[in-house]
Amino acid sequence: MLRHVTAGVDGSTESLAAAHWAAREALRRGASLRLVHAWKWHPRPPSSVPADLSEREWAQQTLDRAVGSVRAAHPGLRIVDRLVADSAVAALLVAAAEAELVVLGSRGLSGVAGVVVGSVSQRVVAGSERPVVLVRSGEASADEHLPVSDGVSPEEIPEVPYRDVVLGLDTRRPCDELIEFAFEAAHRYGAGLHVIHAFNLPSADGADLHAVTGSGPEILAAQERVVVATLRPWCEKFPDVSVTETVSEGRAAAAVVRASSGASLVVVGRRTLGGHLGTHIGPVTHAALHHVACPVAVVPHA
């Protein structure tokens, strides 16, 4: 079966940025790219549809423009376009199930306000059985790489080292799918992997932390040992990936958002409740989707 990365396009600048990011990811993976646009017939077409076109014709033009833009930037990439007469969420969930991952756009505000996740994107993230990457408007190839000096041409940017991949790790419920996704991304990029783990100290009512007792420094040291032990088999599997661990006391969501500054990709997880696809995405993933400026990969896991 042909491997491919899927991106949803809807004519917005966010979805076009997502399509271009998906194209670069497809090339990194040695896969093809599938661009999907969903449309539905309405008795009264939206005002965005030109009066001289049917909704289907306008949808086809929207898809064609995205395909043309990506093909112009990546002429050697195999691109398959798919126009689907269905709701955007339903079409994208079906497409996601057939892909290695699905890439969607996120509306961006200021750096303070963070990312505003659209209802379609959030519902796909919550329901997809495959990893979903959300990309902000304006994301470009240069943003994935370390800063370059003046005079570097766009053609030379891919040769510049990538920024680190950031992984949010919960040692209470470590997940192979999540950890493997982050290591593989860092391996493909030739980048470092920055692993973030945050914990809360035992509360005054006696609740413990992973059954660890002692002072704050002792608990910190114990948590650091757990992180190292959790990552050891993956470091052995990916010896070329340089790993840095940051373990701190506090809110995991805040720690991941802080670490995302200067990252090429943030990888977080979404637990599928009871083995079924649910709508809960968790506080860390919720914070990443709303406040992280770089692309965010959400990996579903049991």
Written overview of the protein:
Helix 1 (13-29) packs across helix 2 (55-73), helix 3 packs parallel to helix 4 (119-127) and helix 7 (252-259) runs parallel beside helix 8 (283-291). Strands 1, 2, 3, 4, 5, 6, 7, 8, 9, 10 and 11 form an eleven-stranded mixed beta sheet that branches. The chain folds into two domains: 1-135, Rossmann fold (3-Layer(aba) Sandwich), CATH 3.40.50.620; 140-302, Rossmann fold (3-Layer(aba) Sandwich). Strand 10, helix 8 (283-291) and strand 11 (296-301) form a beta-alpha-beta unit. It has helices spanning 13-29, 55-73, 88-97, 119-127, 176-189, 216-237, 252-259, 283-291, and strands spanning 4-8, 32-39, 79-85, 102-108, 115-116, 132-136, 165-168, 193-199, 243-249, 265-271, 296-301. The protein has eight helices and eleven strands. It is α/β, with parallel strands linked by helices.
